Amino acid sequence: MRTVRSVVETLSCVFAALVCWFPLNVRADEHSSDDAMKFFENEVRPLLIKRCYECHSEKEASGALTLDSLPSMLGGGDSGPAIVPGDPNNSLLIAAIRYESLEMPPDEKLPNEEIEVLTRWVAIGAPWPGADSKLPVRTRELFDDDDRQWWAIAPVELPNIPELEPPYSNWSRNEIDYFIADRLAQEGLTPAPEASRIAMVRRVFLDVTGLPPSPKQVAEFVEDDAPNAYERLVDRLLASKGYGEHAARQWLDLVRYADSDGYRADGYRPDAWRYRDYVIRSFNEDKPYDRFVQEQIAADELFPDDVHAQVGLGYLRHWVYEWNIRDARTQWKTIIEDVTDTTADTFLGLGLQCAKCHNHKFDPLLQKDYFRLQAFFAPLLPAESVIADAEQVSAYQSQRDLWQAKTADLQAQIDSIEQPYRDKYRNIAIDRFPDDLKIMARKPPDARAPDEAQLVYLIERQVQSEYDRLDQIIAPEDKERLVALRRALKEFDALKPEPLPIAMTVSDVGPIAPPTRLPKRKDELVEPGIPSILNADPMPITSQPVPSPASPTTTGRRSQLAKWLTDPSNPLSTRVIVNRIWQSHFGRGLAENPSDFGRLGGPPSHPELLDWLTVQFIHEQWSLKALHRRILLSATYRQSATHPRFNEYAQQDSANVFHWRHTTTRLRAEQIRDALLFVSGTLEDCEGGPGQLADASCRTIYTRVMRNSPDSLLNGFDLPQFFSSIATRNTTTTPVQSLLMINSDTMLAYGRLLASQVQSESSERTAQVQLAWKRVYGREPTQVEIRQSLDFIESQQTEVALSDDGQPSGLLDTAKLPYRDGQGLKFELDEAKPQVSVPHHPTMDVREFTIETFFQLRSIASNGAVRTLVSKWNGSNQAAGWRFGVTGAGSRRKPQTLVLQMAGKKSDGAISEAAIFSDHHIQINTPYYASATFRLPTDSEPGTVTFYVKDLSNDDEPLLTAVVSHDIVADLANNHPLAIGSWSAKDRQGFDGVIDDVRWVGTPLGVDAILQTVENENSATVGYWRFETVPGVLRNSTADRLNLRVRGDTIVRLTPDEAAFADFCHALLNSNEFLYSH
Amino acid sequence: MGRTRPKTESMMKHIEIPASRREFLTRSGAGFGALALAGMAGVRGAFAQQSPSHVPTAKRVIFLFMEGGPSHLDLFDPKPLLNQLAGQPIPDSFGEVITAMGEMRSPLLECKRQWKQHGQSGMWISDWLPHLAECADDLAVIRSCVADGINHSAGVCQMNTCSILSGRPSLGSWVSYGLGSENQNLPGFVVMQDNNSQVVNGPRNWGAGFMPAVHQGTRLSEGNQPIPYLNTPEGFTQKRQLAKLDFINSLNHRYADQHPEQSELEARIASYELAFRMQADAPDAIDLTEESAETLELYGINAKETNSFGRLCLLGRRLAERGVRFIQLYSGAGSKWDSHDNIEKKHGDLCRGMDQPVAALLKDLKRRGMLEDTLVVWGGEFGRTPMSEKGNGRDHNPTGFSMWMAGGGVRGGQTIGATDELGLHATVDRMHVHDLHASILHLMGIDNMELSYLHQGRPERPTINEGKFNPKLVTG
């Protein structure tokens, strides 16, 4: 603990720090004047520390009084507030040090000059740097009138629309403007002129759909002379699919939606995307917000027959999950707290998290209130629900019955092999838990207490993950039989029905909820309820049977919460959503902290406007589109970002709280990626479905959100981490971001795409510049801008021509392999794609070898074809050679497994084929390390292939091994090139996905020497290709030979002219005018 | 909440440009490269320095993270009773713990190490660490560390962010936020690891959580491209690259001129300048060719076993010299210290790889006079159990384990705290991760309850409102 002495010694440092830390709250009044602050820091604070803190700081708080912050002084202690700013004679503190009432400090009266300092300080209004005098700290349990006057809990009432005088009255277009103008008039400010049509069209496109307008869309609007051109544009945009795709983003931030578990293994959630599509669809249908909320909180209780509404329950499933936590109790507690926190943030805008451990220090929220809210979720039980109507279900069932009947015998045989393993590993999984949980897991389900069902759910998930690994556990002798049986079973696949769609949902453990208790007060049960200041009684709840077979009964708690959240008289949830919509258009809400309406969040700048909009919103059936429309049509929204009296007004209101201009904002991460795809002409219209990989051309909202491996471009532009609810995105500027923009392959590729798009539309240079300009900025370039652009392109062209070193590597697609540094090569199944290979060289004549690589598959072949990782073979069974790859769905032996396919001399002297399989299951879209080692037979041992494979996305997954013997007796040397991602001889049978680091070592490597274990150089290395820009994508990193070559019809090297134009386009995409909306 | 006010958003510093815009524009007429090479005097950069709240004894931290959980029982915390009871189940009196792999009832595993006392202080260090033993009098070994995470993910997350749940800023981010960097051309918070495997949880360990990304750790790798995207793309001459930057600069200046209302626009211009300077400085910072043969020898860079972590430790010193505020070096990245089985081989190899380099770092810092204000922290996310696992390994143990600190005002040659007789639970002077972080921050001049960041209207603090400085670290 810090001593008082050291505090005094270091006050000067504190002062410097305070100046840096607090300026936002400093108002332009006497409180913040430099002199007052110096006086406080030099004289008052040292005195308080020296004389008072020993007893009246947070650690001690004698008489419940702390004097270490202004709020605590104003909040006071047992005897009431310690000071009344400006009135020393009515301040208890002053009376006490004067020994007029309490005698403080008790041992000795202060010297007169010190009493004088404190008296003067109170007299000048008790200035305290950074403190907001309106924030008395709460020390009470009960609520007083002050608490009840908290704006956020006051009933929403329809305020009168202010009356305006010209020029304000002429400026106003709708009611919003009356409130805004009234305040501007009070502040002596005038609104900015209306933004130009060019600026407006880009602003409103980005704002409503998230995408910039095309040159055509700009022209359509700018040339539309109709008086209601803008209104029609707004209506068109709100009706477009892009609206939901953009609006959903804000909601998904709030509910921390992701497609992965987070934590360590970051497991993919294959069904999470249905919630994302549900949100997009809900926005596009303009589903009334009250219904939207009800579905997410309690669709199972309120709308059990609406299968699509059930998807909304995914809201209660976005918590992070760790797959191997044995402390299931803490894990469940964490999950429920997370759901509570997110609900308080998202729907109520309350900093209820502050009240988890103690009563809220500023707001009238009790610790009990946190647990009252949590109690609504106490009976929660995760579920996976079939999202299909009765007809679909019955069709599925009859088809499945048919298939089962035909395959019953095979299934029984398979089960007889698998079941003993399941039993064994079920026990192993359960035995890892503490004793009481073991017992729980082995009880019959109906003997479990309600809270036990939740813990058993967590245990069962770990059992399931053992089952999922069964193939890696089964002994080789059983494996052979199993493979044969599964092959036989596959014959009936034509009969097998497609599985029904599944969504992540919830239900309750039953009609009785587990108890909710206050921490450290175990005997005190908490019933569900709303914040006590609104209603201290428990929420009346009747558990009712719900006519749904999936959940015969629930407690009914969540439906009560949902009803309260969507009650028109709820002062919080209604204002919160209206404020968020306002925020989405202006960058900040009318209440600045959209997820904290408490005193720390600050009061709204225009409380009447917020209330007026809220009343209208409820009146208009909770329609979000109507609210958007009203805002978008306001004169307030249509203001220019600049103001003729900018310098003057900026002094008065630099943050533009009063809305005297529009705010210039940087595009969000997704908007940037979407805009890059859009302006370069490569954006595809996607329809949702499972999350796409980052390299897909879909809008970003349709790409997969993996919490632990965010895309670097998005991450660079402040993508949230999706671990907790986020109401406001950060906007950061870092040099790392600039490096990414200027040097990354991704950005260079966008530059080239834009260039080739523009060049395909016009062959004339000036026209090209104009086209590029219009695509990127939505406006025509000026003459000066055209001139500068042409000059730049010309000089770049000269430079490129002089320096051209003939490297076409920039045309190879590279991509990052998740969980790996640097870049890998991206392959697509496209006949025209270039082939990457090294011509044969004598050093490649090796007897035995190890081939290693890191890769991620995007697809496997639907037939028996192999996705080739590396090959040195032409595929002929008459000539020696080999290929390392992954088998297709129709594989003779096992789909989706590693294979070393070879042709070589057998003991009969003839060359024939041998295919050796690792039997490890390779999942698509998952990064792996994999190697195959080819060993020749010795006198005593048969020849073998050893596989090592490691799932890079899961550190807990061990390095898997398989050693399989083969019957080849001679080396596999040949004169074919070594090819990466395809056959050596032909451009067919390629790879689909990313291949990183390929190393070929001319000797068998043991587990201690493989690349996954050590990265030391190996003297027997034939080649090591890492695909990094340094020393070069195609270069062998161990020696300057065996560099890769690229051949294929599509390799067209950029001419200096094209390269220079690509530089120009890349520069435009780096510029702020592209990255900002104004 | 005491004398701890909510700090405001202004603390979310972006790049500051004290020089006037006008001046900036005038100067930028010289072209991007010229401007950058002129050093941009006056631009303080993204890592604006804040002042500490009390006199710091450490200016920077080098955090040596033994990822996977090194065994305190085999390194710094000898337990004679363990070898006496080896082979038997742990007596009930030691209390129940939840172990990751559920082997609470497995027999106790003997410690095969030879223990000796070292230095004037007579500190116990096992024979796995002969070089560190020479530095015994510089180390303050904390034998009573406690964490909450049983799994690697939770443990590594907590040792970095104080919380077992993800989403909070890491310690380095708090330091960057609180103190800024001393070097404007390098990031203030740098992370390196000894191999290419992913550290558990990946980059979010050094993420800025809810703070702006400017405070996140930057992963530096060895080789030609230490920072992602640092190099000019392949096939681009310097002249071509500079011309492009120059053109971007002119586009950005025009837009910034038209939009004086948005100050970020200038920050983005400056960040391109900073990126350019980083491009010049970062490769130099990691270039070991300037180091003498003697230094390379000291760190074990010439020997295969010690090469990897030796290079990291030496790079750590070079970055510290250049004013990087928080340097985190991972040994055994990808949970390699995790020895559920065959601990003799696994720990033995890692100790041999880590011991000499870490000792060299301490000695090198000391002879350069840098140990005084450089705090070196050593440890993993947890320790290991006295119970065996799979016969010859040890499970995770967050309820009692050892870490040490050296330099930065810490009094060396002392052990703080103790575990029970088998090393399962910390019993004396327990230091929770919150206390460890509070202590590290304190040594850097930051009061863990004073530093706060307003997030969603809530003042968030680096140690989640808990934890306190352990004065024994400096007083002994």
What composes the largest sheet of chain B?
9 strands, mixed
The arrangement of helices and strands of chain B along the chain is HHEHEEHEHHEEHHHHEHEEEEEEEEHEEH
Mean pLDDT of chain A: 87
Gap between N and C termini of chain B, in Å? 30 Å
Relative strand content of chain A: 5-15%
Shape of chain B: globular
If interface size is counted as residues with C-beta under 8 Å from the partner's C-beta, which chains form the largest one?
A: A-B, 138 and 111 residues
Structural class of chain B: alpha/beta
The number of distinct helices of chain B, counting runs of at least 4 residues, comes to: 13
- Give the low-pLDDT segments of chain A: 1-32
Arithmetic mean of pLDDT of chain B: 85
Question: Which oligomeric state applies?
Answer: heterodimer
Count the E strands of chain A: 21
Could you explain how this protein is built, in words?
Chain A is of the alpha+beta class and 1078 residues long. Chain A is built from 36 helices and 21 strands. In chain A, the strands form five sheets. In chain A, strands 6, 7, 9, 14, 15, 16, 18 and 19 form an eight-stranded antiparallel β-sheet that branches. With 476 residues, chain B is α/β, with parallel strands linked by helices. Chain B has helices at 21-28, 32-37, 80-85, 130-133, 152-161, 171-179, 238-258, 264-285, 293-298, 304-321, 343-367, 433-443, 472-475; strands spanning 60-66, 115-118, 123-126, 139-146, 189-193, 218-219, 326-331, 374-379, 383-389, 393-397, 401-406, 414-416, 418-419, 426-428, 431-432, 453-455, 458-460. In chain B, strands 1, 4, 5, 6, 7, 8, 11, 12 and 15 form a nine-stranded mixed β-sheet that branches. In chain B, helix 7 packs antiparallel against helix 8 (264-285) and helix 10 (304-321) packs parallel to helix 11. The two termini of chain B are 30 Å apart. The model of chain B is unreliable at 1-50 (pLDDT under 50). The interface between A and B is large, with 138 and 111 residues.
